[in-house]
Amino acid sequence: MNPLPDTQAFTHPHVFLSASHDESSRRTLLVALLTAVMMVGEIAAGFYTGSMALLADGFHMATHAGALGIAALAYGYARRHAGDARFSFGTGKVGDLAGFASAAILGIVAAVMAFESVLRLYEPVEVAFGDATLVAVLGLGVNLVSAFLLGGGHSHGHGHSHHHKAHAHTPHDDDHPHHDHPHHDHPHHGEAHPGAARGQDNNLRGAYLHVLADALTSVLAIVALLAGGALGWVWLDPVMGIVGGLVIARWAWSLMRDTSAVLLDQTDSQLAGEVTEVVEGPGDVRIADLHVWRIGPDSHAAIISVVAPLGLTCDAIRARLAPVHELKHVTVECRHAA
Questions:
Q1: Is residue 162 part of a domain?
Q2: C-alpha dihedral (118, 119, 124, 126), degrees to nearest 10
């Protein structure tokens, strides 16, 4: 009886975190701590001075601090469990889950802002213009520093993928699916990743949008408070609140749409078209079934079933996919036409 074959050479890890994962984690944690310190300072100053403006802005900042904390925890969780076999395709989508949560929190913040602003249009309240303007300027400064630390909310992975050397299979073996797993990107070598637009880190994007929302609120508040103090336009403060709420709601919807698409394994139509083009290009095979979905900020998986003539192996099909660097986990099934 022949011994069972050694499968070690065919196994591979399922770690699909972005090349900048650890750097983004450190930056997000720093911004979360900075926001939390600012939040505590505003609330403490509000109680000390009796300023409702300070208290309101402090509690408003608490929601952003909470969302940034979720983002920081998500980075840590994804790294700690990157090799956990319970996650079939690794923890690359944990950041998208955190991004979805951030989008939900942003949506709530936008709704509360708009609702309170409408109430203040009908029931104006006395505004401490001096204290409120000081808070808004200080908050804007913190937000600008935070935005700089987050680097614009984009993950810029660099590198290029290298496919493993193709393994030989008998014609009988080619009737069964085989897996291919390229090497991970190396962040310090190679040209810019061609899928950078598709490889956005939605966790970092969510953190950045919270910082941006806070900055927008501060800018609108400064404009409204200066106009209110100088011209007596008290109504401008709630109007700016409504405008800010609508803009933030639009950002929240955009982030929720994109993260939900990843969480639901929505097909990347552009990438699927690229795969179809390179596989069917020579004109000797046809794709019978194709699934392409994202498994990490810089990584996509694909399951491809092709109808091919006898003699054309799955390895030959995988070789055609070598230029599609976004694919990090590929399964190819070859069916031979009668």
A1: no
A2: -110
Query: Which of 263, 282, 297 is the last residue before a domain boundary?
Result: 263
For residue 4, CA distances in Å to 7, 11, 179, 180, 266 come to 9, 15, 19, 21, 38
pLDDT of residue 307: 92
Instruction: List residues bridging with 296 in a β-sheet.
Output: 299
* CA 110 – CA 107 distance, rounded (Å): 5
First CA to last CA across the chain, in angstroms? Answer: 33
The Cα–Cα gap between 210 and 57 comes to: 14
- ∠ CA 99-139-225 to the nearest 5 degrees? 120
pLDDT reported for residue 142 = 86
Domain ranges, residue 330: 174-183+269-336
Same domain, 124 and 236: yes
> Would you say residue 112 lies in a domain?
yes
CA nearest 254: which of 111, 27, 102?
Answer: 102
> Using one digit for the tens of pLDDT, what is the confidence trace for 103-113?
999 899 889 88
Edge to edge, the sheet with strand 178-180 lists 178-180, 327-336, 299-308, 286-296
| Nearest alpha-carbon partner for 265 in 315, 302, 298 | 302
Sequence length of the chain is: 338
Alpha-carbon gap, residue 320 to 244, rounded angstroms: 49
Low-confidence residues of the chain, pLDDT below 50?
Answer: 155-197
Q: Are residues 44 and 95 in the same domain?
A: yes
Number of domains composing the chain: 2
Range list of H helices, the chain: 21-49, 52-80, 94-122, 129-150, 202-231, 236-263, 269-280, 314-320
pLDDT score of 256: 93
Question: Is 82:90 a contact under the CB 8 Å cutoff?
Answer: yes
CB 210 within 8 A of CB 67: yes
Answer whether 97's CB lies under 8 Å from 263's CB: yes
Structural contact between residues 238 and 121, judged by C-beta atoms closer than 8 angstroms: yes
